[in-house]
Amino acid sequence: MAEQNVARKFKSGEQEIERSPTRFEITGRLERHVGIETDNFKYLQSVTQRTAKLCIPSPTILHMRGGRAAIDKRAYPDMDSFYDDLARIYREEIHALADLGCTYLQLDDPNMAYLCDEKMRESVRHIGEDPDQLPRTYAKLINDCIKDRPANMTVCMHICRGNFRSAWAAEGGYDPVAEILFNEFKLDGFFLNTTRRGRAASRRCVSCPRTRKSSSAWLRPRAATWKVPTISNGASTRRAVTSLSSSWRSARNAAFSSTVLGNNITVDAEIAKLSLVVRVAREVWD
User: Fold this and answer.
1) Which residue of 142, 225, 229, 256 shows the fewest CB atoms closer than 10 Å?
2) From the DSSP assignment, how many helices (H) and strands (E) are in the chain?
3) Phi, psi angles (nearest 5°) of residue 117
4) Could you please report the per-residue DSSP string of 128-173?
5) How far is CA 88 from CA 32, 82, 274, in A?
6) CA quadruple 105, 111, 113, 115: dihedral positive or negative?
7) CA distance 262 to 164
């Protein structure tokens, strides 16, 4: 792995935090020699009597941070073969997870949100990619990853705007990607971060007539934030949840951080926030 040359700026109020996220360098043909998330799922399943939901990185992350330049042309003279191998590995992993009893899988994909932010769209052009075409490329990739999933496995996508030291990276509504996202991705549902101008666009696009009827969308209420220690009261959180129409449900975002560095929040505050979410969920949905 190598560091990306262009740093991203994460924002928290007036503060800006510059960080160069790790990217992947593909130096040979992709193969799955061992389970990637299988041990994690085994552990998760061992500590709950409820449906064990496994969250894994989206395959788009292997491409987005470096583009063609990060993929050895001797290993992959053409990009189609790279995407084919990547999708095959995900299918192998998904089937291994299914064999262990996994029925609920979530792909964590910040890239679809990044493609809504003009500054980040410019960085995509910088690595030689077309930000208008890339969502369609990623739709085909993800559809190939999940096309043979068992009938009893639900696969959703969580779209995050970045979550690092209580700051975010991407802004803007979903308009640049909405038509492709909600019509071409063959997923069972979407978890959308709707802060920073995302709610109106996502609500409008998901409800448009061309949207696939089989998918659902979940909006995260603004009241349930994980970036700061402040804890909202149960009433405000209930209002945020119940104000959504019956076809929408609330969902968490990237929890307390998308990185190992975490957010500016204590463990006690994390426990209190999770307890509030559980209590409100029981009150709203019983």
Assistant:
1) 229
2) 10, 10
3) -100, 125
4) T--TTTHHHHHHHHHHHHHTT--TT-EEEEEE----BTTBB---S-
5) 9, 10, 36
6) negative
7) 6
Give phi and psi for 238, each to the nearest 5: -60, -40
Is the Cβ–Cβ distance between 9 and 65 less than 8 Å? no
DSSP, res 5: S
CA 178 to chain centroid = 15
Distance CA 37, CA 57 (A): 10
Amino acid 213 reads: K
pTM, entire model:
0.76
Can you give the residue ranges of every domain in the chain?
A: 2-220
The token pair at 151 is 């009938």
**93-146: per-residue pLDDT in tens?**
999 999 999 999 999 988 888 898 888 888 888 888 999 999 999 999 999 999
